[in-house]
């Protein structure tokens, strides 16, 4: 069994302006005048059928080795030739669409996973590829860092303030409680400095997270 060539092209007119097509079996010219509404036409020379249109929806053309043109379901895998002198059983493989028969599909843009975010610095919109907020993002327009959502800077600001105040209170406690000991062992001053320094660093970090710009998504996730 063989699949016929594409039949999407309607015959071109001959010199007299009458539409004609070549027979797919004997290559004789077939007059299509008044037959353009049909799916197949019969050759007057070899008496075989030739398609002039694509098969109906859900159907396909198959030509038997005896040149009999058959129309069957496009899901059929075996069909029998109805001619009494043939009766051949035709086994069909998967149908491959010929490129000319396959309608051109418009190219669909590839949608990347992520969400559109409005930069807190420059106000431009960029695509953020993380499927979660509470993280930092670098705007491709202004090259500045901002937080996607306000939850992350709020949590970190509160955490650094808490840790900083604890360190300062520890430093004050050491200063008050170890004054006499520090006069004899000067290394005690180092512990005071470390406690105050850690508290100061934490408060500076809290100020950083409290002042960081926040970028908000155009559409929040449900």
Automatic annotation (TrEMBL):
It is found in: Late endosome membrane; Lysosome membrane. Its EC number is 3.1.3.78. The keyword Transmembrane helix applies. It comes from the Eukaryota. It is a multi-pass membrane protein. Keywords: Endosome, Hydrolase, Lipid metabolism, Lysosome, Membrane, Transmembrane, Transmembrane helix. GO terms for molecular function: phosphatidylinositol-4,5-bisphosphate 4-phosphatase activity. It is an enzyme of class 3 (hydrolase). Catalyzes the hydrolysis of phosphatidylinositol-4,5-bisphosphate (PtdIns-4,5-P2) to phosphatidylinositol-4-phosphate (PtdIns-4-P). This is Phosphatidylinositol-4,5-bisphosphate 4-phosphatase. It comes from Hemiprocne comata.
């Amino acid at each position: 069994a063989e699949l016929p060539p594409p039949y999407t092209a309607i015959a071109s007119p001959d010199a007299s302006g009458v539409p004609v097509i070549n027979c797919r079996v004997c290559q004789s010219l077939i007059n299509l005048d008044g037959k353009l509404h049909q799916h197949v036409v019969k050759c007057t020379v070899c008496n075989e059928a030739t398609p002039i249109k694509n098969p109906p929806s859900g159907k396909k053309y198959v030509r038997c080795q005896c040149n009999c043109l058959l129309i069957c379901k496009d899901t059929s895998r075996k069909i029998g030739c109805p001619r009494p002198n043939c009766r051949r059983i035709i086994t069909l493989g998967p149908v491959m669409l010929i490129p000319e028969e396959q309608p051109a599909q418009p190219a669909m843009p590839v949608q990347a996973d992520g969400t559109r975010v409005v930069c807190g610095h420059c106000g431009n919109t960029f695509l953020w590829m993380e499927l979660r907020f509470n993280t930092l993002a670098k705007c491709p327009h202004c090259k500045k860092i901002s937080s996607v959502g306000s939850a992350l800077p709020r949590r970190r600001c509160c955490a650094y303030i808490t840790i900083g105040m604890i360190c300062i209170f520890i430093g004050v406690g050491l200063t008050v409680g170890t004054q006499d000991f520090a006069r004899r062992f000067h290394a005690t001053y180092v512990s005071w400095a470390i406690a105050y320094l850690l508290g100061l660093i934490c408060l500076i970090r809290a100020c950083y997270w409290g002042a960081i710009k926040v970028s908000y998504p155009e559409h929040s996730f449900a």
